Amino acid sequence: RKEVEQDPGPFNVPEGATVAFNCTYSNSASQSFFWYRQDCRKEPKLLMSVYSSGNEDGRFTAQLNRASQYISLLIRDSKLSDSATYLCVVKATGNNRLAFGKGNQVVVIP
Amino acid sequence: NAGVTQTPKFQVLKTGQSMTLQCAQDMNHNSMYWYRQDPGMGLRLIYYSASEGTTDKGEVPNGYNVSRLNKREFSLRLESAAPSQTSVYFCASSPRTSGANEQFFGPGTRLTVL
């Protein structure tokens, strides 16, 4: 089983709509969780960290479900500029490296 | 403050040639990383350096060597390039040795091996 799994999509979203997707992780010792955004042919950039209590940053909401070992990202009122690939990233305790998912590709359609 | 810089941006090699990818960061970060990204594979860690003077293998180290030249610079060397090493290579840095917080990425090097 892959360490981090994501449905690559693409997720075609009408402008103004809401889109949500999940990412599952296999290592129950994982302690740190992140969503990164990667634009086409660009480097990944941190979108937000994911906290146990869930967190919100403007139109973006991230949730963590430790029991079922998944994290989610919800984007409200989608903008054309939200078109990108969203990478789920997980770090296990005692491990110096991050594990990256393949990404969820979001395409916002006018 | 340039962040993480990588050179070159693009490179074409013939099988068996060698080259070194350069990475530098000006954020005084302790940890630095080299990843490769292939279509459908996601980012995979090649090598990392938790702090100056240390390097460790990541998920896919075969065919590569690294040097942490100083706190700022972390280079990746391909001694004998193979077509399977055609990829986009990203360097990243992180303030803490645990890498638990944000990693900052360079713009990438697009390498083609013929």
Description:
The complex is a heterodimer of chains A (110) and B (114). With 110 residues, chain A is mainly β. Chain A has strands spanning 4-6, 11-14, 19-25, 30-38, 44-50, 55-57, 60-65, 70-75, 84-92, 98-100, 104-109. In chain A, strands 2, 4, 5, 9, 10 and 11 form a 6-stranded mixed beta sheet that branches. Chain A has a 5-stranded antiparallel beta sheet with strand order 1-3-8-7-6, with no helix packed on it. Chain A is globular. The N and C termini of chain A lie far apart (37 Å). Chain B has strands at 4-7, 10-13, 19-25, 31-38, 42-49, 56-57, 64-68, 74-78, 87-94, 104-105, 109-113. Chain B is mainly β and 114 residues long. The A-B interface holds A 4, 8, 31-32, 34, 42-46, 49, 87, 91, 96-98, 100-103 and B 31, 33, 35, 40-45, 48, 50, 56, 58-59, 90, 97-103, 105-108.
Number of helices of chain A: 0
Radius of gyration of chain A: 13 Å
Beta-strand content estimate of chain B: over 45%
In terms of structural class, how would the helical and strand content of chain A be classed? mainly beta
Q: How many strands, what sense, and barrel or not for the largest sheet of chain A?
A: 6 strands, mixed
- Apparent shape of chain A: globular
Helix content of chain A: under 10%
Order of helical and strand elements of chain B: EEEEEEEEEEE
> What's the SSE pattern of chain A?
EEEEEEEEEEE
Alpha-carbon Rg of chain B, integer:
13 Å
Strand content of chain A: over 45%
Number of helices of chain B: 0
Distance between the termini of chain A: 37 Å
How is the main sheet of chain B built?
Answer: 7 strands, mixed
Query: How far apart, in Å, are the first and last alpha carbons of chain B?
Result: 36 Å
Summed over residues and divided by their number, the pLDDT of chain B gives a mean of 92
Spans of chain B with pLDDT under 50 lasting ≥5 residues? Answer: none
C-alpha geometry of chain B: globular
Question: Quaternary status of these chains?
Answer: heterodimer
| Helical fraction of chain B | under 10%
